[in-house]
Amino acid sequence: MRNLVHDSRQRLGWSQQRLADELGVSRQTVISIERGRFDPSLPLAFRLAAVFGSTIEELFFPDDQP
């Protein structure tokens, strides 16, 4: 699965640590999500979407989708 978490975070001007603090997760978790090595749980995906003011579908999409 691909995602736009990195781009969304940078648009806010936030560090990975700031996003991790907002989400209640480790900075390593944020790094893993941004790099596509870890797919977040559904509750965490909803928190990410809420932080960025978007929907899960706007942040995450299948690898085969352009």
UniProtKB/TrEMBL annotation:
Domain HTH cro/C1-type: 9-59
Domain of life of the source: Bacteria
Stored InterPro entries: Cro/C1-type_HTH (IPR001387), Lambda_DNA-bd_dom_sf (IPR010982)
One Pfam family this sequence matches: HTH_3
Protein name: Helix-turn-helix transcriptional regulator
Record key words, sorted: DNA-binding
SUPFAM superfamilies: lambda repressor-like DNA-binding domains
Organism: Kocuria oceani
